[in-house]
Amino acid sequence: MTRQRLYLYDTTLRDGQQTQGVQFSAAEKTEIALMLDALGVDHIEGGWPGANPTDSEFFAAAPATRATMTAFGMTKRAGRSAENDEVLAGVLNAGTPAVCLVGKTHPFHVHEALGISLEENLDNIRASVAHLVAEGREALFDAEHFFDGYAENPDYAVLCLKTALEAGATWVILCDTNGGTLPAEVGRVTRAVIVAGIPGARLGIHTHDDTGNAVACALAAIDAGARQIQGTLNGLGERCGNASLTTLIPTLMLKEPYRSTLEIGVTAQGLSQITRISRRLDEILNRPPLRAAPYAGSSAFAHKAGLHASAILKNPATYEHVDPALVGNQRIIPMSNQAGQSNLRARLAEAGIEVCRDDPALARILDLVKLREDQGYAYDGAQASFELLALGELGRMQHFFDVERYRVTVERRKNAIGRRISVSEAVVVVRIGGERMLSVSESVDEQGEDLGPVNALWRALAKDLGPYQANISDMHLVDFRVRITGSGVDATTRVIIESADGQGRRWATVGVSPNIVDASFEALVEAIRWKLIRDGVKPA
Amino acid sequence: MTRQRLYLYDTTLRDGQQTQGVQFSAAEKTEIALMLDALGVDHIEGGWPGANPTDSEFFAAAPATRATMTAFGMTKRAGRSAENDEVLAGVLNAGTPAVCLVGKTHPFHVHEALGISLEENLDNIRASVAHLVAEGREALFDAEHFFDGYAENPDYAVLCLKTALEAGATWVILCDTNGGTLPAEVGRVTRAVIVAGIPGARLGIHTHDDTGNAVACALAAIDAGARQIQGTLNGLGERCGNASLTTLIPTLMLKEPYRSTLEIGVTAQGLSQITRISRRLDEILNRPPLRAAPYAGSSAFAHKAGLHASAILKNPATYEHVDPALVGNQRIIPMSNQAGQSNLRARLAEAGIEVCRDDPALARILDLVKLREDQGYAYDGAQASFELLALGELGRMQHFFDVERYRVTVERRKNAIGRRISVSEAVVVVRIGGERMLSVSESVDEQGEDLGPVNALWRALAKDLGPYQANISDMHLVDFRVRITGSGVDATTRVIIESADGQGRRWATVGVSPNIVDASFEALVEAIRWKLIRDGVKPA
């Protein structure tokens, strides 16, 4: 059976930027655009050039992508030509192959928000789209508030779509801008629009999650014949977010009827990367990842209930709707569970740590993990620390060095020419074997900018570790994540540090303390210890 | 038109307990049960007594509720009578007016998980339900894996339901246990089940969010005629969670067709409490609230896009699908680089800062906000810093004090008795008027625990501010949030500090620097300046 093509239009970088608390730099937009391209979406809506300086900057150096790079804007204002509309000119100046313009299709908005007549609005749509086409761009039309507009005046709403298509738009997209339309109505209206003469093959759907139905509404429109979905990674977006492509892509590829009847631009390889891409986006934005996110969440395949866990071990199909490996995720049987011991043995074996089935250390490790997690530690994202914990309980921990003391100083003052500067300095006293070493380091980058106390501490630690120096010298810090956990008197700081070495390894360690420098110190020391163990170093 | 009754069955305390990282104490279960009762749900599934010690403890002292307190369990094992099944006895011993038993309806599970025949399974269902009824309890039957079972053997699946009903169950609930069924199929199967003879008025639906469709699947079943929804507050639950009642209740009460055709046990008063209840649950569990949650999330009515914000000011109906007040939430127009001048004037007016419409400072303020946001500042969550920025551009900023320099030291060493301790100390040199003051402070709490460099810096700053001391003395830090923005050479630290004073004010300020202590310092100084301005203090 020949599958029909379904197109994915990603607006993470534009609608996703409207998420409260989200601010992309141009460099971050570039990295995300490349991830989206590798994933296999068809359009990447990069932002609104001219309106947002960061977006202009991004488009000025936008990466080359297979996906069609698209600039967002709005239809021209009344009272001037499309050629003379400076906002539209700003959008075109970004030079993208495609441009998507949002325009009104709801009489209430035409009158209230724009203060013009229905006829003038149609002219704005027609002239704007025609101008894009004349400039050699692919033109897309986002029909704002479509479902509310259709409810008030269905003929006018459809006429807006037809006007855009006749002016040369390749796609017209039904936008549920307020997010208040339920799936049944989205399906009904989409079918009616197609019956009224808008071809499904040129119809897109853009939904929001204000009733928790963004994904369902997108699917309802596809069921009704639409063939483009606009969404974002991780459901980013205004208010409650857009339809999550992270959630939709696996469903479209793995579940009927979509798997058999529709084809998207994402390959099986791309699908297997979706968990990693989802988590990388959260890292870039330093947003705590949503554990319960479908497919990609760390809990998506976590089977806590005792019944579920023991059944799963016998046969995963009993409690999993898809194989987590297909989306690059993994099954978890959380540590707090009875069935956890066999899972623990399996995880330790993966780390090269063999433990006999009945070793009482297994139960001790589970208890210690629980205890530490109550204190604020998190081993989900700090596998290396988990391994060190296990080795400790198994009596296999080796003792390489001891930090007798450290002192970190941050000073802010005026320099000799009266300019305010900040200086961080760290002193560490390390004992290795019988020897005692003192090291001091400042923390400045090539521009002379102070990188802070944690960086100073790391440099001092790494400066002179005696017999271990060679092993440490190819090690560097890759990422540093801070979370304040608990609240009030229980508040404490959790620091996760990611390290990498010259042999391609990457590992993450965790430290917890009310004192952020101390928490960082704990994570740093663990990072070094893990590296020494993995390098097979013998303690001095 | 007479509305039909739709019943809400809450399983926050049972299925919700299967959320990774969630652990209810019996006291917490009691508090949540009372919240659920005040909200207006019909059944409260409190847990699995006998199987979970905390649940037995909860049921032993369960609060009196209008809602029907319900114990969860499973159908009897084969080879013994219902009366002699000790797990079932444990469930009954809790003495609840209702009991809900989960049982198999999927031949694969009957054979694989239970290792019994289809006939024996029917007998387990029949005998268990009959036993509950004989014991004077309301009996409910959760048909596990129903949609997968129906796909494999529809007749058997329906027969299981009929068996339960004939044995006296008041409700039989179709459970999408793996969460893999899409809404269209849920609707189709529910309709088929009703056609096969199961009355919709005794049919419930229990969905999970593994494809992001838990809410949509619940609505699909209701559209098809089911009349009970099983869900949880805030979508807690195994893996990706259950259908969120926090999301469903407002939709059922405010949106067509449900508003006109169905009636639930929640009143308008209860609905107006749903945001508060949702957030209180997150507080109890110390989970960060989901900002993007439909209806109850802090971002649910946050309008960041410039177009949206200016339209909203004219008429909220333009971009809101429901009035936030109905669910006890509020509209937010965050300050960010997309806000326009009219929005800016409105925000400043709310802060008591009047600015004329054409004041050129407005454009300068917007530009400065954009510039700062490019540097890593975020004013969404730091309203007080935004106000200071505006006052600066308006030439209305007052100069209270100057921090000439500071030095913060964190030291980790062994104390006199050989115990490892951590000590943070800060020295600040402040110039006020013509005077120069030096202050030093350590940072320890009542237990002698070191609270870190930022806390030390705060204490030193707040220790002696000369003429301003009285204003500072009732000020304290409430929250401290750190985010590393950018990456690699662009990485910098953003700190947001939330402060509170004795007059009930709370305000947030932001600081940015690669050095986390310096970023914190900036936020601290702004917090003090804001306080002094709000207190109407005259600079010395």
UniProtKB/TrEMBL annotation, chains A, B:
It comes from the Bacteria. The keyword Transferase applies. One of its GO terms (molecular function) is 2-isopropylmalate synthase activity. It holds the Pfam family HMGL-like. It catalyses: pyruvate + acetyl-CoA + H2O = (3R)-citramalate + CoA + H(+). It is an enzyme of class 2 (transferase). SUPFAM superfamilies: 2-isopropylmalate synthase LeuA, allosteric (dimerisation) domain (SSF110921), Aldolase (SSF51569). The keyword Methyltransferase does not apply. Residues 6-272 form the Pyruvate carboxyltransferase domain. GO terms for biological process: isoleucine biosynthetic process; L-leucine biosynthetic process. Its EC number is 2.3.3.21. Transmembrane segments: none annotated. Pathway: Amino-acid biosynthesis; L-isoleucine biosynthesis; 2-oxobutanoate from pyruvate: step 1/3. Keywords: Amino-acid biosynthesis, Branched-chain amino acid biosynthesis, Isoleucine biosynthesis, Transferase. Belongs to the alpha-IPM synthase/homocitrate synthase family. This is Citramalate synthase. The lineage of its organism: Bacteria, Pseudomonadati, Pseudomonadota, Alphaproteobacteria, Rhodobacterales.
